[in-house]
Amino acid sequence: NNNNNGLKNEPIYAKVNKKKAGQVASLEEPIYAQVAKKVNAKIDQLNQAASGLGGVGQAGFPLKRYDKVDDLSKVGLSASPEPIYATIDDLSKVGLSRNQELAQKIDNLNQAVSEAKAIS
Predict the structure, then answer these.
(1) Which residue of 6, 35, 62, 88 has the fewest CB atoms within a 10 Å radius of its CB?
(2) Residue 84: closest CA among 93, 72, 96, 92
(3) What is the pLDDT of residue 71?
(4) CA Rg, the chain, in Å?
(5) pTM more than 0.70
(6) Cα dihedral sign for 103, 106, 112, 116?
(7) What is the pLDDT of residue 112?
């Protein structure tokens, strides 16, 4: 049914989502990749300028490209909606270190117990 205000029953946002679902939202490069490219270009520019100066090493050049810049460019490419800050890998590492920590504590307790037994 068509109301007089021109809106159909289906909300506008549902249409938009339908159109986007199952296809790449935009063929443009993700913003992260654009930023990463700009940052890298700027670093190259600075390094070139610096290489014209004497004592390049002393000035802290060449500038390092931080991994984070690369990581950002990959973020936009990920098809999965998993949040950046909690990738499954990271969580498994957290779990491992926690388990190792607990195992260490248990070992220490066992050690203490066996030492106590040896003394008595």
Answers:
(1) 6
(2) 72
(3) 53
(4) 28
(5) no
(6) negative
(7) 86
- Residue at token pair 């388990």: 99
Q: What is the distance between the alpha carbons of residues 111 and 117, in angstroms, rounded to a whole number? A: 10
Token pair of 17 as six digits: 């989502």
**C-beta of residue 43 within 8 angstroms of C-beta of residue 63:** yes
Task: For the chain, give the secondary structure using H, E and C.
Answer: CCCCCCCCCCCHHHHHHHHHCCCCCCCCCCHHHHHHHHHHHHHHHHHHHHHCCCCCHHHCCCCCCCHHHHHHHHHCCCCCCCCHHHCHHHHHHHHHHHHHHHHHHHHHHHHHHHHHHHHC
Provide the pLDDT for residue 65: 52
The whole-angstrom distance between residue 116's C-alpha and the CA centroid of its chain comes to 48
pLDDT at 85: 55
